Amino acid sequence: MEEPGRDKGSKVAADIEDPNPGNRDTTTVSTKSARGYPLALWIAILGLIMLVGMYIFSLSLQQNGMIFGLMQTNMIEKEREKPCHNPRISDTEIPYVHYPTPNTYDRKECACTAVRFFAILSMQRSGSGWFETLLNSHENISSNGEIFSVKVRRSNVSTITKTLDKLYNLDWYSSAAKNECTAAVGLKWMLNQADVLARYKPTIDKKLLISELKRSDKLAADSLTNFKNIRHIVLYYEDVVRNHTKLIDVLDFLNLPKTKLSSRHVKIHTKRLCDHIENWADVNSTLKGTPYQSFLNG
Ligand SMILES: *[C@@H]1O[C@H](CO)[C@@H](O)[C@H](O)[C@H]1NC(C)=O
Ligand SMILES: *[C@@H]1O[C@H](CO)[C@@H](O)[C@H](O)[C@H]1NC(C)=O
Ligand SMILES: *[C@@H]1O[C@H](CO)[C@@H](O)[C@H](O)[C@H]1NC(C)=O
Ligand SMILES: *[C@@H]1O[C@H](CO)[C@@H](O)[C@H](O)[C@H]1NC(C)=O
Description:
Layout: H1 2-17, H2 19-25, H3 31-67, H4 70-81, E1 97-98, E2 115-122, H5 128-136, E3 141-143, H6 157-168, E4 184-190, H7 206-226, H8 237-242, H9 246-253, H10 280-287
Parallel strand pairs: 2-4, 3-4
Antiparallel strand pairs: 1-2
Helix pairs in contact: 1-3, 3-4, 7-10
Bound molecules: 2-acetamido-2-deoxy-beta-D-glucopyranose (4 copies).
One 2-acetamido-2-deoxy-beta-D-glucopyranose is lined by residues 243, 245-246, 249.
């Protein structure tokens, strides 16, 4: 960043010094030109100082923007430059909205639709697939599923950022792509990918049960700690099942028009929990009297 500054300064200085050798060569210097010369020099130096000063000033402004203001100042500038300042977007919201320009098509009439980027972080088997279908029933939301389930896309940081860039630039094609103006685009990221969905009636290892439950608790708690400085909302499956108005909170969070969300997702496990587990008696006795006892009522 400093290099171009120096280059520019020295280039300007060289231009000004150029006439000097000629002036020095003349042995007789008239008083007139002697008086005139310093004046011209002063003006030149003043101009140079102002130029370099302005340059350094603008440089430090740029650096402040990057170091202290992070992305926010830049984005506010970007937003102000837009011919289509969206009056629905308040100043505090500006850092959260984007105006993507996809490489693969022209957003045309949607060009001024502010887009919010989101990610759903979820535990396995927590109803996030169903939750996504609810989101995608909104005309302005595009939630693209577990795009990182494909190994090559998460093989290293550059493939991850490339995939995210493509998704958030609205260049990602999936069944979640919208014909309407997308105003919120995101994906789903599983916190614990390791567990394979077991459709069969599992036998639960009672020796590991408590430690596994504790591990899951810790994973969720750690994730919340890691993302505590990022704007987020926490949803519990049970709350969404019990209370559909909970989804209004989600649309509020994404600042989207409130419409009724629906899903054609079919619940697979419709029986009581005790009918889905082979060794229920073991599980019952293991969890009894622990903080996880309420899970037995599922
Ligand atoms: C990242 O992974 C991709 C695909 O596997 C590969 O083509 C690329 O060279 C890798 N880049 C780095 C920096 O390792
Ligand atoms: C949702 O999409 C419709 C249809 O494309 C568009 O007119 C509207 O502005 C969008 N809503 C938001 C909040 O962006
Ligand atoms: C349902 O959720 C809404 C929004 O979070 C809340 O205001 C309301 O009190 C909840 N109703 C019940 C019965 O829990
Ligand atoms: C757990 O076992 C006890 C008997 O030890 C029984 O009374 C209770 O109903 C069982 N709970 C469930 C949820 O099956």
